[in-house]
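ARCHIVE ENTRY
Sequence with per-residue tokens
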Amino acid sequence: MFSRRNRRPASPESPELLDAWKCLDARDVPGALRQLRAAGEDQPLGEVALVAGRAAAAAGFDDLARAAAALAAAPERVQALYDFGFACVERGVSYLAIPALREAQRHSRGSLAVLRELVSAYEDEGRHREARDELVRYEHALEEWPDRYLLVFNALMAGDLETARRQHALLRDPEDPRWRPARDRQNRMLARAADAERAGALDATDLRGWQYVIGGTVLGALSPFGFGAGMTGRYAWLQDGPELCLRGLLRLRTLLAAAELQPRSVSLLPDRGSRILGRAAAEVLDLPAEPFAPGREDTVVVAYDLNALAGHDGGPEALEQLRERVPGQVLHEHASCWTDAPAIAADSVGLLHQSVVAPWAPQLRQGPDGGVEQGPADDRPEAELAAVITGADPTADPGDGDGPADPDEAFTAFATAVSGTWLRGERSRLMSAGPVPSSRFA
């Protein structure tokens, strides 16, 4: 199918492309794709297409293989550039699409079709500032739906409230009813931004504020490590403990009080971690605990880690049932991954992590010889582990001293400021510190 199968990348400045080809010789398609990403965006597009096409053929992606063959044959042809970029986005390798679509945009002198696909690729890669910049560059030619909507969206994702508000004011209500949910979502995001600004700076380091603006989630605790290195309150690898669990539950209690919510129960999800934390939450909130039941109103549903829940028996069904929550149903997730977002967004999150080891999981410890070893899992009964959480010291770790303090008073002020817009409307799926990719547009 791929006529240039035996043609190898020839550029001496592209060792990563040659390494990717060697990966394909060894039938290692994921390794080849990693090498393509490592190669960067300045590689000859025809040679990138050679490698991508062979990888696509090996994976059975005939559409991408055909588009890559066409681009390898004519790397300056606009249609070939566009078709390759489109196929890359469709197949989940948007980082390969961006250089081709950028080149197609340059040659096509502002084609809206190419622009939309390029914006989609940027969004998939979380590069919202570049998506905003491309849309601003062609602002004079934008159609209202979807183009100006995409400009508002990506400006918000880039933390550019000024542009988002100005463009949103120019965006008339859509005549096509299919766009109304998107318009409603942006209205909610901007309303949340107005609330978050009253409680904080809502600048590039305001993690709690942007987490709320984008997804409607209130973040409980900020990490005290690596703030100035770009973490701004997120954890990387975290060995969790009962102290952090209790701190998150106390912040949840403050949030419920600020919103004047009076739940009648705590709902226990089926996985062990969520049952342990749920029992502790019931004690902290002074509420009865009962197994999760879909449709139960006025309850706090407690999850330790929604991604862990997804891998448990009954977990996917529970997540689907929580996607559209009933009145008074509040979802609290203690440890939420910001690099591999769960399928749904919680209303309250204890902390953000990249990788977490639960308090009851095998944890690293100092061995008898002074080295590091992995200890055993804590298999004590759930009620006993819940009691360890409620009896812990919730005092915040001082960390490395690089970031701002996160006192209870500051969190209370934030919870009070956003109480009017919290739990209003649908919850958006989260990615990193707030931003979510918008849906693809046919």
